[in-house]
Amino acid sequence: MFKKVLKILGSFFLVSFILFAGLGVYTYVTSGNETADATPYLDEAMPVFTTWDYEQFSPYLSEGAKEAFNNENGKKLLKALSRLGEPESFESPQFLGSKVGGTVEHGSFDLVAFSILGHFSNGDAQFTITLNRENEGYSINHININSDVFIN
User: Fold this and answer.
1) 14-64 per-position pLDDT tens digit
2) pLDDT score for 124
3) Closest listed residue to residue 84, CA positions, set 142, 146, 27, 137
4) Which of 18-27, 61-70, 76-85 has the least mean pLDDT?
5) Rounded distance, CA 116 to CA 107, Å?
6) Residue 114 reports pLDDT greater than 90
7) CB 3.0-4.6 Å disulfide test: which of 9, 44, 60, 95 passes with 31?
């Protein structure tokens, strides 16, 4: 009886290990593909976005992001972000994760998140960018920017 319980537990742990190892390999392979696909887009979009000029970077935004920037609060935000100064360089994007799903209101979505460190004339800034994968490529869905420049 005891041997049967140990065999069942051993089988459970073996299957669990194989499942988690397979998930790890899948995540590793997927992250490499996502990074290779999105890096050229981010290399093109980041210098344009950091002009802080809505008219220049709006073609890179998703419809929801355009609504967030194209109003009075968006203009105030861009003015605050311009305190970073001129962009000097950006480090390679680091893949954070992806999410596929859907909502009744907005339909299906396919999001990919990256982290990018940017170097500016007034200090560094850490960007967390969520891209919306579309038929033709990507669009910026959400941006979070952290920098010590904003503290002063």
Assistant:
1) 676 676 666 555 555 454 456 667 889 999 999 999 999 999 999 999 888
2) 95
3) 146
4) 18-27
5) 28
6) yes
7) 95
Contacts by 22-27 with C-beta closer than 8 Å and gap 24+? none
- CA distances, 88 to each of 14, 50, 64, 151 (Å): 50, 10, 28, 20
Coil, strand, or helix at residue 38?
helix
* pTM attached to this predicted model: 0.71
Which architecture does CATH list for 40-150?
Answer: Roll (3.10)
- 110, two tokens: 């396919």
- Give the separation between CA 22 and CA 151, rounded to whole angstroms: 44
Q: Which ranges in the chain belong to alpha helices (H)?
A: 2-49, 54-57, 63-69, 72-81
Contact call for residues 145 and 78 (beta carbons, < 8 A): no
CA separation for the pair 98, 44 (Å, rounded): 21
